[in-house]
Amino acid sequence: AQKITQTQPGMFVQEKEAVTLDCTYDTSDPSYGLFWYKQPSSGEMIFLIYQGSYDQQNATEGRYSLNFQKARKSANLVISASQLGDSAMYFCAMREGMSSYKLIFGSGTRLLVRP
Amino acid sequence: GAGVSQSPRYKVAKRGQDVALRCDPISGHVSLFWYQQALGQGPEFLTYFQNEAQLDKSGLPSDRFFAERPEGSVSTLKIQRTQQEDSAVYLCASSLARGTDTQYFGPGTRLTVL
Lengths: 115, 114
Hints:
The complex is a heterodimer.
Chain A: E1 4-5, E2 10-14, E3 19-21, E4 24-25, E5 32-39, E6 46-52, E7 60-61, E8 64-69, E9 74-79, E10 88-96, E11 104-105, E12 109-114
Parallel strand pairs in A: 2-12
Antiparallel strand pairs in A: 1-4, 3-9, 5-6, 5-10, 7-8, 8-9, 10-11, 10-12
Chain B: E1 5-7, E2 10-13, E3 19-24, E4 31-37, E5 44-50, E6 53-56, E7 65-68, E8 75-79, E9 88-95, E10 104-105, E11 109-113
Parallel strand pairs in B: 2-11
Antiparallel strand pairs in B: 1-3, 3-8, 4-5, 4-9, 5-6, 7-8, 9-10, 9-11
């Protein structure tokens, strides 16, 4: 089974609107971490936001927030007030286990922001 | 401060050639990772270093792949006798202390094997 599933290969959003990128995960380990990275055409993976499995509140970082629904095993990324520079690939990733270091990535979602 | 840097950014190799890809992690970062990203997919783990020690190389696809970090800073990923299926982007990441800290990635090296 896929550990990280991103079901939206591509998304469009109008500039200044909010957009939600979906991510579901599969693990039986009670301790895990969830990450979102942005990959623009330049290739670099840019860290956006992190959510730990024991965190009580949803993570937020500026215009990025993570809608963490533990029972549903989903960790959707919400980008508010989209900007043209947000056009990129977005990857959801998981680290399983307290001492794990490997990141397991989904297949990504390509976001295109329309002016 | 400077981020993770990788060189070369692009490499074209003929099948059967050896290649060496370099990674300069963020200064002071103890942990270093290599990932392979095939076209249209997410990155996949290759190997992990803590200082100069290679603690995990379980993701290396074959014995043609070899990574080193002799002084605990710069790392080199070497691929011997390259094959077409080795064509991918090779990403390096580093984290401050433990491997469980947030990983910061470099821009990658795009390897094309003809």
